[in-house]
Structure formats: structure tokens, C-alpha cells
């Protein structure tokens, strides 16, 4: 396996000159204006392109032939009933599925025109660029400070750690609440604070993309509202993909929404598939597919 060279300036994993792979270009997708944020240059560029992506656990095809694009500095929501493959699709965007024995991806996923699953791509580098926040807040049993400093230290950062910690906590809207107790255990924070800490820990290593798998489902409505506000702020700098089973949340926070469902095949096996993907306002007011309409109107799922 050849080593990949990581270029922070473009946020891509590039091969060294002369190496093979990563030359495909994503197709051009029209970019609508959302939340008035697409007027600035560079917004809406394709970050991920999934082409005929199927995902297996052993011989079980959990997700079938997904085609979609994820755009820069937008919030893309994945919605649909339980078991339709939302988490499976999310995890394949930063190669988290690699950690599950038997998990396998077919089709092509590009990250900035590069094949995310090419042999030369280092999954550790991928996860550094594409961070993840989970359903249950999972701070390390360490101080607030050490939770945030952990990633930068692993990456070899030695200087300016106080500034990095402050910046990350400020970015996650947590600084004012914790600045006087940075040496206290992160486990003593409330659930909502712990989730913002996990977001701070993710942004401390300066990723480009943040994947969130039902980040509010363990939180009360006030903590949820704080995270949703935070997501809006983060989307000015980061590309966010969120799985949520809360349709109101998808409607409130996201720019684009992908609706997944599970079909039963001739043998009675359920396979997740992408039914419809569009700008969120269209998905929630004028969906093209009857199944989307039934789901968002609460008739199903
Ligand atoms: N680690 C795994 N091993 C085997 N099957 C799995 C694994 N994770 C998920 N699945 C199966 O894949 C399908 C999709 O699951 P998942 O992506 O978790 O759905 P969702 O997030 O939409 O609820 C389900 O049938 C689930 O049982
Ligand atoms: Mg899930």
C-alpha cells in the first residue's frame, strides 16, 4: 500500500505525484440557494459523491444502490424509518464501517473527486478530515481540557494548546459554561454539555466534515435547541451530514434531505434504499415520491 499525502489546504487526501487513482470528477449538480448562504464563493461544491453504493454486512445487503451528492458547508439530513440504513450510509462516509467485521462497500464514493476507498487512502487520515459525533455523548473519562486536547496531541501538536482548547470550546458554544472548570471531569457535565464537548473535541482537529448520528436523541428539548443553533453556526465553516429520526429537526436544520426506506425483496429480506433526495424545503412541501409524502405526513414509519 502506498502512502497518501494529506493536503490540509484543500482538505483532500491526495496521492503523491505519479500515483494512480482519484482522477474522476463529480458530476455537475445545480446548486440552489438555501438559507441565503450559497451566494458566497465556494459554497455548495460537491464534497461527497456516492455512485451506485451498496453496503453489505457479510452477505446481507443492508443498503442498495445509493446515488447522492453532499455539498460543501451545507447540512444534509438523512431521514427514514428505523433500520433503513441511515447509520450504515453515514458510517461509510468516513470509513467507520471498516471497523465492523464483514462490512463491505460496493460502488464508488468520492471525497473531493478522490476515491475514498482507494488502496492508497489511509482511513485514519480520512477520519481526521471527516469527524463523527454519536447518538450518546461519549466524552473520555478525562478533564474537559484533556478531552479537547486529545486529538491535537495525537496529531503531534505541542504548542498553543490553550488557544486550541478555547477556540474549539467557543466554536461548540460551550466555552462560557466551562472556562472556569477546564480541569474538572468531562463526565460531570450535563448530557447536552457533554454532546457539545464531543462536538468541540471533533472540531479541535479541524476537520472539514462533521458526521452526526442522531446527536440529539439522548437530549432534552432545550439542549436539543442549543445543538441545532450550534449546527447552523457550524455550517458556515463545516460540511455537516446528520442522521435524525426527528423530521421537524431535519426540516429546521438541514439544507438538503435524503429520505431512505426499506424494501422487502422476494425472499422477505429488507434492504435500505434512497427514495428521494432534494432541497429540504421541497422535500417537506412538495416531494416527488408518494412514499416521501406518506412518511413526512406521518402516514407511515
Ligand atoms: N454491525 C452490523 N452488523 C450486521 N448488520 C447490521 C449492522 N449494523 C446495522 N445492521 C443492519 O443493517 C440495516 C441498517 O441498519 P442501520 O444503518 O443501523 O439503520 P438505521 O440507522 O436507519 O436505523 C439493519 O437491518 C441492521 O440490522
Ligand atoms: Mg441509526
- Using the coordinates shown, work out and report the CATH topology: Rossmann fold
**Secondary-structure element order, N to C:** EEEEEHEEHEHHHHEHEHEEHH
Mean pLDDT: 87
Shape: globular
Question: pLDDT under 50 segments (min length 5)?
Answer: 1-12, 14-36
Into which percentage range does the β-strand content fall?
25-35%
Structure classification: alpha/beta
Helix content: 25-40%
For this structure, what is the CATH class?
Alpha Beta
Describe the strand arrangement of the main beta sheet, using strand numbers.
7-6-3-4-12-11-5-10-9-8
The name of the CATH superfamily reads P-loop containing nucleotide triphosphate hydrolases
Under the CATH scheme, the architecture is: 3-Layer(aba) Sandwich
How many separate domains make up the residues?
1
Rg, nearest Å: 19 Å
Largest sheet composition = 10 strands, mixed
Helical segment count:
10
Compose a concise summary of this entry.
The chain has 10 helices and 12 strands. It has 301 residues and is α/β, with parallel strands linked by helices.
Features:
single chain, 301 residues, alpha/beta, Rossmann fold, ten-stranded mixed sheet, two-stranded antiparallel ribbon, 12 strands, globular, disordered N terminus, binds adenosine-5'-diphosphate, binds magnesium ion
Amino acid at each position: 500500500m502506498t502512502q497518501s499525502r494529506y493536503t490540509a489546504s484543500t482538505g483532500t487526501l491526495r496521492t503523491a505525484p505519479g500515483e494512480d487513482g482519484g482522477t474522476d470528477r463529480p458530476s455537475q449538480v445545480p446548486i440552489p440557494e438555501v438559507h441565503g448562504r450559497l451566494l458566497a464563493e465556494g459554497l455548495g461544491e460537491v464534497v461527497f459523491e456516492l455512485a451506485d453504493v451498496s453496503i453489505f454486512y457479510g452477505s446481507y445487503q443492508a443498503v442498495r444502490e445509493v446515488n447522492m451528492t453532499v455539498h460543501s458547508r451545507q447540512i444534509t439530513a438523512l431521514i427514514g424509518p428505523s433500520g433503513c440504513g441511515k447509520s450504515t450510509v453515514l458510517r461509510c462516509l468516513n470509513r467507520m464501517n471498516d471497523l465492523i467485521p464483514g462490512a463491505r462497500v460496493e460502488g464508488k464514493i468520492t471525497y473531493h473527486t478522490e476515491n475514498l476507498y482507494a488502496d492508497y487512502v489511509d482511513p485514519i487520515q480520512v477520519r481526521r478530515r471527516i469527524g463523527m459525533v454519536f447518538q450518546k455523548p461519549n466524552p473520555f473519562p478525562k478533564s474537559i481540557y484533556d478531552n479537547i486536547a486529545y486529538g491535537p496531541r495525537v496529531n503531534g501538536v505541542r504548542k498553543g494548546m490553550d488557544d486550541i482548547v478555547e477556540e474549539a470550546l467557543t466554536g461548540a458554544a460551550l466555552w462560557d459554561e466551562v472556562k472556569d472548570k477546564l480541569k474538572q471531569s468531562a463526565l460531570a457535565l450535563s448530557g447536552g454539555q457533554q454532546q457539545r464537548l464531543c462536538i468541540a473535541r471533533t472540531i479541535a482537529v479541524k476537520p472539514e466534515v462533521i458526521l452526526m448520528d442522531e446527536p440529539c436523541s439522548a437530549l432534552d428539548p432545550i439542549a436539543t435547541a442549543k445543538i441545532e443553533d450550534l449546527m447552523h453556526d457550524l455550517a458556515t465553516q463545516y460540511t455537516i451530514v446528520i442522521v435524525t429520526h426527528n423530521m421537524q429537526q431535519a426540516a429546521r436544520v438541514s439544507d438538503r434531505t435524503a429520505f431512505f426506506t426499506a424494501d422487502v425483496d422476494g425472499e422477505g429480506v429488507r434492504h435500505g434504499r434512497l427514495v428521494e433526495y432534494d432541497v429540504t424545503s421541497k422535500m417537506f412541501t412538495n416531494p416527488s415520491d408518494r412514499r416521501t409524502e406518506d412518511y413526512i405526513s406521518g402516514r407511515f414509519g
